[in-house]
Design brief:
Structural class: mainly alpha
Shape: elongated
Strand content: 5-15%
Number of strands: 4
Number of helices: 6
Helix content: 40-55%
Largest sheet: 2 strands, antiparallel
CATH architecture of the domain at 3-58: Orthogonal Bundle
CATH superfamily of the domain at 3-58: Winged helix-like DNA-binding domain superfamily/Winged helix DNA-binding domain
Distance between the termini: 63 Å
Radius of gyration: 33 Å
């Protein structure tokens, strides 16, 4: 069943809403079964329904409202699923299958502006963006020369600025 056939059937019956299904089917030169087959997508969405052998079809405005409600319900369900995934992420990142710190450091050390916050305290281990001015340096460790970062951004640096 295509959307085109359902659309065509809808426009043929919308003006006859509330009449006997058999009468409506005869007026559009179909059997009641053929008409209901064509209207199946609309029945699934609550736009058309049969009650006591009468076919009831929502007006175009009511049909739009119904489709918006269906879309909102789908969006709410997708939002709930994404929130569940978000709640699961901390459990996934806490697993013991994450790469060793050295592996992470070798990849992230090459990214300019990223510095390791702490290599000793596992509770505060993280990567952060250096907010110090990016001044090229010819001396100091390789990480400082690559990123242009100042030495005070690394733990244990001899600069007077404390790492944050």
């Amino acid at each position: 069943m295509t959307g085109k056939a359902a659309d065509r059937a809808y426009h043929q019956v919308v003006g006859q809403s509330g009449r006997e299904l058999v009468s409506i089917a005869q007026s559009v030169l179909r059997t009641p079964e053929e008409l209901m087959r064509d209207l199946a997508p609309l029945v699934e969405r609550g736009i058309a329904q049969v009650e006591d052998s009468r076919l009831f079809v929502l007006t175009p405005a009511e049909a739009v409202v119904r489709m918006v409600e269906i879309s909102a319900d789908s969006a709410a369900a997708a939002h709930a699923r994404l929130q569940a995934v978000g709640r699961a992420l901390p459990h996934l990142t806490a697993s013991n299958v994450r790469p060793a710190d050295g592996d992470v450091a070798s990849v992230l050390d090459a990214a300019p502006g990223l510095v390791q916050a702490s290599a000793e305290d596992r509770d505060t281990r993280a990567w952060r963006v250096c907010t110090r001015p990016q001044t090229p340096s010819r001396s100091g460790p390789a990480w400082a020369r690559r990123s242009g970062c100042c030495r005070s951004c690394r733990p244990g640096c001899s600069s007077s600025a404390a790492p944050t």
